[in-house]
Amino acid sequence: MTLDEIAIKHGTDKATTHPVKGHGYAPHYARFFDELRNSPIKFLEIGVGGGESIRTWLEYFPNASIFGVDNVVNTNPWNTPKSGIHGRYTFVSGDQSDETMWKCLTADYGTDWDIIIDDGGHYADQVITSYKFLWKHVRSGGLYCIEDLAVAYGGPPFTPSGWPNHMDFIKDKLDDINLRDDIESLNFSKELAIITKKHCV
199 an active-site residue? Predict the structure, then answer.
């Protein structure tokens, strides 16, 4: 099955078809993820919800260790710490705008993430804080993905007055491609940015 077919099966809005809104991220992700599909990767998603996308990743990446972070807890088995819902899945409760939480997570579960997806709260401070802390922990050649970017145009409370909102922050990464040595590429599609970390030589 394709990633989009698996996403539709599990009811995540990352699919092209969804009862409320299909964002259509899955075909874009497949272009970057397919070559890693059977690898023993380390994968983190911020924003768990009802576990629809977590179930998608567990099926699509059969050898991956999948981690989920959310500040909403104990509403379903996928956002309940130590629920034991799946042997390759670990849930961590925390606020993504809290750098101390990220320090604890990386201390407990290590660094060198192959893929990180931010589908969390979508507030500017959450998106920016998470990226600033986690980018250094993405492995060489790894991917950092930020979803639902249209929220950045919605104004308060998601975007504070003045610069930067998180869309401004991500656009700045275009300059980083030329001025820094840690970004290989930045791929934009509707409401989605996929940032590839430069391979170490």
Answer: no
Q: What is the pTM of this model?
A: 0.95
Which of 122, 137, 166, 199 does the annotation list as catalytic? 122
Q: Is the pLDDT of residue 201 over 60?
A: no
- Tokens at residue 142, please? 């790894």
CA separation for the pair 177, 98 (Å, rounded): 27
Domain edges within the chain: 40-197
**Which residues have C-beta within 8 Å of that of residue 8, sequence separation ≥ 6?**
15, 16, 17, 18
Q: What percent of the residues of the chain are helix, what percent strand, and what percent coil, each to the nearest 5?
A: 40, 20, 40
Classified by CATH at the fold level, domain 40-197 comes out as Rossmann fold (3.40.50)
CA atoms of 9 and 96, how far apart (whole Å): 28
Query: For residue range 155-188, what is the model confidence (pLDDT) as tens digits?
Result: 666 666 665 788 889 999 999 898 888 999 999 9
